[in-house]
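Question (not urgent): is this output format expected?
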Amino acid sequence: MSKAEERDIMEENTAAQAPLVIGIGASAGGLEALQQFFGYMPANSGLSFVVIQHLSPDYKSLMADILGKHTEMAVCQAENGMNIEQDTVYLIPPKKYMTIQDNQLILSDYAPGTLNHPIDIFFASLAEARREHSIVAVLSGTGTDGTNGVKAVKEHGGLVIAQAPESAKFDGMPRSVINTGLADFVLFPEEIAEEILNFSNTPVLLRAPKSDGPFSDEEMIFSEEETLSHIYTILKNASGIDFTYYKRSTILRRIERRMLVTHTTSLGEFARLLGDSAEEVNILVKEILIGVTNFFRDPAFFEKLKYNAIYKIVERAKESEPIRVWSAGCSTGEEAYSIAILFREVMEELNVKRDVKIFATDVDSRAIEQAGKGIFSENIIDDVTPDRLAKFFLKVNDQYQISKDIRRMIVFATHNMFSDPPFGKLDLISCRNVMIYFQPVLRRGLFAIFHSALKNNGFLFLGKSETAGEYVSLFKPVCSAEKIYLHKGEGKVEDLTPPAFTIPNIQAISPRSIRAGSTQTEDGVAEGLYTKFLERFLPASVILNGEDTVLHFFGSYTDYLTLAPGKATLNFFSMLNQDLSLVAATALSRCRAENTAVTYTNIAVDVPSGRKVIDLSVQPISGVSGEKSDLIAVLFQENKPAEETGVTEKYDLDATAARRIADLEREFQVSQSDLRATIQRLETVNGELQAANEELLTANEELQSSTEELQSVNEELYTVNTEHQLKLDELTMMTNDLSNFLSSTMIGILFVDSNLNIRKFTEYVGREFQLMEHDVGRPIQIFAHSFPEEAIESDCRTVLKDLISIDREVTAMNGRCYTLRIAPYRTTENSIRGLVITIIDSLGTSPRKEEAVSAAQQASPSPI
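Got this back:
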């Protein structure tokens, strides 16, 4: 077992023991989806949730308070080094990236001057840390943040869920994920919660036994081997690919993931589903062949490739020799295009031209079809530098299209490297992150193919988890860390033979089809017989078009026209007898210029049968309706009187040559003059276009940068606005509650500011101070009240000065007794913003009033 495989097993065990972490990416409009999601998620699920949003760096996030009202789980803003606990929701802080490492959340600052994609960064780190145990959900938002991260999750076998676009306020982010074809589910927020619970509560459906003995993972016996073999057969019949020797653990993980998605409980049930559903078969094939790649994946590796391999290939290649490159397992083409860009850059830096031909192949025909289009989403800006983006790509709406110069360097083809014949005489083979999915028997065969396909001193470029260390006699490390090897053609390794390749059979043509074809051509044969009979009596002649190409032959022309050796051509002058070249060229030129028949007589011609004296006649051919056409007939006439139509001259070599030279000189002068004028116009237009192009490039870069910044700011502001709107709704509800409380209570409350101006009051106190609604804002001093014996204004100023409350019993003019309290109005920041005057009815009369009533009763005479 290699060190890489041991490391993978350790990481898998660690991921399985840690709590499941759900990564949730959301942006504009995502708050509502988050509320719905957590409203359906129970508080004791045992899961951990990490929410990544686009937050404004200039405002404090209120997300923790808002989400806390929709879940009983603890909701907190993440801190650097914080351990991940179960049943907890962690929120990303503003101006930070967040990753996961050793069950801890790691924070880092935004990179200034770059487009921030915090969702991609967290998803990628989650995929590395939790592998097939990683779960991510992409909710409402604009742009494509999260798409690259989803690719990493899918590559490691994780679960990907996208919010249904119709339920999202902004469908840019979920739709971008859906368009990749990598989403396992497309659901509404509440359904997402249900599916995550189903995933977390489902036990491991398939598990190959761990090997304690000398057997490798590939040699273990699976408990349902017959069923698995049946599935392999179904997949091979549908795709033509034999997955038997693909890495067993990868196959089982992909099958288990589809069983979870389709809610099947056993391998046999899933096999029956595959037998009934061609769509599910195609999905499983796609899952196994998951082609996740990026431009310049592992940028440092590609830089090493450029300076340690590509420079050497271009420098040693002769100008007449093509440079041949094979990108094996190219998926959707990003790797092949990256290599083509590097070759183009090296040729420009060395100021040389070479014919570079890159053969980019993959077993997945759908990926090859997509690669051939050369169109990519705008999230490639995370992988391609701005200079390369401007130079080698064209922005088309929301996508980038590869330039034609780069596209012409690559030939895309569907190709199975184990069954189809390989390419040969290669200078470079790039096969990255392909062998990690194969069992050793396939890897051995692949190295045998590379050995036979590469030139001596050719280069091999592998993925960072792959190595050619077992075959040091064939592949010498050039850059060990970057997996670049030099091929030694004279090296040998025992038992390293390429697999047998299948050559497609040529389908035999059945006699029935031959008979059917012959009956269809009987009319054509008869027509040929008629033509041959007529041509026996016609003079040797041909029909030419405007480019002097022969369209038809008549008569016995073999004395005057013969096919020249070399590349086949029907050009009239290439086949014409040399003795007739001058006169024929002159006659054709005059005929076209004057639009009349031209005949030269008494021309001596040396032919295989001896010398002949003939007349050469060139005649224009009119169209069906008599209009002028570019067709011309050339006749070679022997011993026949010339017709009186057109121009007829006796052939004179000197005169004909002089006329031809004069015609050529005149044509040359006209062409030279036209060429000069054209060059001048082109230089002027080229200069203008170059200046305009530079201006457009500059403007485009500025606009692109501004657009990205505005989009980011817009998402941040939308998030802030949503949080503030929710807070405003809460404050409105609190205001309504307070208003209802003040209006319904039997307690008189009067709020005044520091200048004793009325701010708010209850209806109960309004009766004692004779206040109306429009009196808010007026000073309390101008109003009469029902307590003439009380110096309320003076008491208010005393409280404002000493900040000590006053409480005492007071009596109104009607004799009722009240409790008067004057207290400072304190804010949450403990600042004084006025006074609160409270008047509470004591539900009785004053003692003095009671004494007066009693005395009056005693003084009155007793009733008789």
